[in-house]
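ok trying again, last paste got cut off:
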Amino acid sequence: MVRFSRARVMTVIATALAAVGIMSAVPALADPPPPPQTPTATTFDGTPTVGPLFRNGLDQHHGCTASVVASPRHDLLVTAAHCVTGTAAGWQFAPGYRGGQTPYGVWTVTHAYIDPRWAGGQDPHYDYAILQVADQSIGGVKTAIQDVTGGNVLAPAPRAGRSITDVAYNSGIDDLPIHCATTATYTDGFPGFNCHGFVGGSSGSPWLAKVPGTHVTEVVGVIGGLYQGGCYEYTSYSSPLTWQADKLILRATLGQHPDVVPAAGSDGC
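nice, full thing came through this time. structure:
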């Protein structure tokens, strides 16, 4: 089966062509059955730290999802490396986006940082990227994005069975975010979760986990990694986050050597 950007392309094409009477006799490709009791993501009003990435302006469809990650300069996002090409300079991030509204403003990406093992060979263990965004003048005061939205703490990959909530935006425009509360699993060393509804655009979306007894929210994964996030809409993966991801935050904070990111190759599905 062919998959592109977490979307079941051949199924979608066949369905679309059938709708206009061109391929009415062509059956849609079927995914294997999901695990029993797999939940389904639902729309909601969003969260301040998560939003879609727009490559070509807010009047065009957005692609992947990103989220604000806590950092010393308060100016960083985390997403999937396979979502990024080139420097990402000029891309726009709209935290809390809902129905076309941008309640926390629109922030412009300036630099991208990826692990050298993604840059050199697209190793799925390192399918994450840190994006730096420019500060804005708000009320005459230079303001960083984290000062407006808050930020989630980048943390190691979750243990199997840990409760997580993924917040994502499937590709589109004037849409609502989705979220799903579920638990972490593992496949071949990659964290995963089962939940229906995560398709094109959900790559890079954060796996959020509360730290018990605190107000801290951690990012313990982003959709990506194995098969660039998964071959089926009901199973999603992440690269296993380690201290190597923190090195990207340090590089960005120090302004060291931003990357020009190669376009992602085949997802292997």
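cool. Helices lie at 9-19, 116-121, 145-149, 243-254. The domain at 31-254 is CATH 2.40.10.10 (Thrombin, subunit H).
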